[in-house]
Amino acid sequence: MAQTAGLSLADAARSMQPWFHNLHLPDGTQTAPDHSLGDFPAYKWQELAPLLPQDMTGWTVLDIGCNAGFYSFELARRGARVTAIDSNAHYLSQAAWAARVYGLAERIEFRRMQVYELARIAGTCDLVLFLGVFYHLRYPLLALDIVREKVGRLLAFQTLTMPGPEQGPEVRDLPFAQRGELVSEAWPRMAFVEHSMAGDPTNWWVPNPSCVEAVLRTRALKVVARPGTEVWLCEPDPEGESSRGLGFEEEFAAALGRAAPGGG
Predict the structure, then answer these.
(1) What is the pTM of this model?
(2) Which Gene Ontology molecular function entries are recorded, alphabetically (predicted)?
């Protein structure tokens, strides 16, 4: 981490470049004022914020892929206790520094870890943020299965998507002879990026919107709002179909090194 003691906020922020989150610091300094996406992620937060309680005292939040902590700070300001994780040490250093600047360090715990490691941590959180991570993962469905176990009340989900309709066909059992339907525009699907996209080799997958909704349904998550482009707000659906039965549960347990369901 850069040495920031004795530096102005502007100089300290400059010493920790590059920034992906454009934080607005107390002295008016912005950490990424020339961001290619504009005032990011403030404009995304403005879409989601009205759907969350103004007073989140007593809420627990898990911020997956927290980056420099923008969302964690906003939720901590509303009274939530936040656990924020990221695999990138540079971003976590930025986040920890900014938390001290904002006076929020006591409300947020930052951890360096992969999303898959959440499988080894017990318990749920009232709100889980899974924003801008899914498409960066080599194993996105495994990650979502793990994340689903952590959702208490709400999941905020965001991913890069490719063009396509919001809703696709819910075919209960597609015959092999009709597999030509898989290439229809509305069919839930994800494109695989073999090398790189937008200069980023971690952009592995790009689903269409109907794929996102289908994937969420298979983990018993009900979409309750679409706050903005490529953003879904979900809640656990007790009546939803979680997975495809015992075969899935056995596969999931094996992937995580857990005992098979039923002790088999």
Answers:
(1) 0.94
(2) methyltransferase activity
